[in-house]
Amino acid sequence: MKPICTLSRQIWISFIYSLFVIVVITPARAELCSVADAQALFQASRQWLDQQMLNDPLDMKPPDFSKGVTLSPTFSATAAGVVLRLNGRPVGQAWVKQNSDSSLCLAEALLKALQQASNDRVLCALPADMRAHATQELALEIELVGDARPFTGDRLDVIAARVDNSRQAMAIRAGDQWAFSLPSLQQSQNQTQLPWYTMVVMAREVGVEAGADKKFLLPEGVVIYRADTRRLAQIAAKAPAFEVSRGMLTVPLSDITAHALDAMAIAIAAHLESRIRNPEDLSQEVIDTLNALGPAGEYQPALAVYAQQVCSPMEQAMSAFAMAEFSECNFSQKDRSAALEFAISTLNSLQRVVGEEKNPLDHPVAAAACLLACQLVNHSAMTWGNADTADWQKKLRTKVVETFQLQNFADVQTWSLCAAALAQESPDEVAKALNTVWQIRPVEKLLSASPWLLLAEQRVGKASDHEKAKKGWNLLQIMLVQNQLTQKLNPDIAADLVGGWPITTNGVTGATAQSSRPAWALALALNPKLFGISNAKNADMESLKLALRFLKQLQVDQASCYAFRDPSKAIGGIRASPWDSSQPLGANATTLLAILEARALFALDSESQSN
C-alpha cells in the first residue's frame, strides 16, 4: 500500500488543475455498439461455443454471425477480444482487428481463443469424452471496440497517461501493422498498473522500439489510438451475460444505506480473517513460523496468489486495530469473536519477528498502531497473549512516547498516530500539543495525518475544547469536497470513480483505495460528539455518502468474481483501484475503519429524519 503521505501532495496538486485531471480520466465516448447488439453477439457466441468439440485433431470454423444474428444498421467494431475461463482461470484469450475484407472480428477472436484453450494443460488432461464437451463448461467474456481515435504527441509515456485505464482499449499503428491492448485481456492477468509499459510492448509488436532509451519517443509516422469498449461477461457457462466496466458492476449511490454498511463491514472482516494462514498438516516448526508471519499481505485474485507473503508491521497493526474496533461494535457475537481472535492472533505474531519481517519496535508509526490495537484488545479481553505480552506493550509505549515528545512536526503523520495512541492515557498533554499542530499552515501539510489527528481529538475528549481542530479541519474539508470526483462538477465522469479522490500512481490518474483515508477522516469529523455539528443538516454528509459509494465500488462482490480463480478468498475484499484487482491488507483495514465510523452517523441520520 502506498504511503499515506503521498496522498496530501497528490490531492493538493489536483486542487490546482482538477479540471484537467477530470478531463484526462473521463474522455468523451466515441461511437460504440449498443448493449442490445452486444447481447445478441454474446448469445450467438455462446451458442457457437457450446456446439464445438475439442477433438484431436481440432476441426472447427469461426461462427458466421451474418446468419441468425440481427444487428442494428449502425453497428460497427474496430476490434474484438475474447476471454474463455474455466473456474475463473483464463484458458484462452485473443483479440482480432476488424478488416474490411473479412468477417466480423469477434468470430475470428472466438476461434483463436478456443484454439488456445484446446492446449490448456487441465483441459488436455481430461478423459477424451469430457474434453470433447469441455467447451460447454467454459465461461465467456467478449469485448467489442468502438471507433479508434488518434492521440497527438510523440511521447509514449505521456500519451499512456491520457488513456482511461481499463475502460479504453489502446492501439498502435506503424504503417499497416497494428497492435491492440484490450481491457478484458489486460485485466485477466491484472496487468493494468503500468499502461506506459503495455504501450512499449505493443510498440515492439509492430516493430518499433520506443522505450529502450527511456525517452519514450515515437518514430515519425507511428500513431497511438484509444477507443471505448463494450464488455459482457458471465459468472459461469450457463449463467446469463451482464455488462461490466473495468470488470465490475457500477454501484449506485442509492445502495449506500445503514444496512449496506453493516454488510460491507461484515464482508471485509470475513475477508481479513481469510488472510490468516492455515497451518494444518505441517511440522511444528513451520506452524510456528507461519503464525509469526501473521496475516498474508496483498492478494491478487486474478492470479490467485499472495504477492506479499511478508506484510509490513504497519499494515498488520492497522488490520488488528480495525478488527478490534469491529469486535466492539453491535454485530453478532460470532462475528465479533472472530474479529477479536484475528486481532489477538495478529498482535501475537507482531511480537515475534522472523525472516525478512520488520520489527514494529523499530518503526514508530507501526509501534503506535500496535499500541492502539492493544488498547482495544485489553478492553475486550482481560487476559490475552503470552508471558511476554505485557513487556512488549511497555516497549511499544516507550517508543511511542519518545516519538511523541520529539514533536517532529515535519513528519506530522507519524506524530499524530503516536498522539492518538497516547490520547486516552495523557489527554491534557496530547490536547495541548494537538492545538499547536492544528495551526500548521499551509493546511495541506495536515491532510495525510488528518484521520489520526481527528482520532486523537476524539480520544482526548473533554481535555480539549477542539476549537483549533475545528478551524483546521474546516479548511481541510474545503479541500476534500472541492477535489472529490462528482458528477455535479463533471457530468461525464466515469460512474465507477464517483466519490473517490484523484491521485496519480505509476502514470495513471484516477481514484484508488487511498480514498478510504479521507473517507475515514470525514466520518470522524462528522460525528457530532466531536465538533457538535448537526449531522442530519450537514451538507458534507453527502460527500461522505459519495465516498462510501466509491469504497463499495471497490469491494469485490459475486459478479466481480467471474474473473477470479478462488472467489472465497477475494469476496468482500477491497481492490487497490477500479482497474487493479489486487487487494492490499492496509486498504481493507482503513476502509473497515471508515465504514465502522460511518455506521453511527447513518444511525443518527435515520433517527433525526424520523423525528
Distance between the termini: 43 Å
So, CATH architecture of the largest domain?
Alpha/alpha barrel
Strand content: 5-15%
Tell me the major beta sheet: 8 strands, antiparallel
Q: Round the mean pLDDT to the nearest integer and report it.
A: 90
Helix content: 40-55%
- Helix tally equals 24
Assembly state (oligomeric): single chain
- Look at the helices and sheets and give the structural class: alpha+beta
At the first level of CATH, the class of the largest domain is Mainly Alpha
Give the overall form: globular
Question: What low-confidence regions span 5 or more consecutive residues with pLDDT below 50?
Answer: 1-9, 11-30
Can you tell me the number of structural domains? 2
Question: Mind telling me the C-alpha Rg?
Answer: 26 Å
CATH level 3 topology of the largest domain: Glycosyltransferase
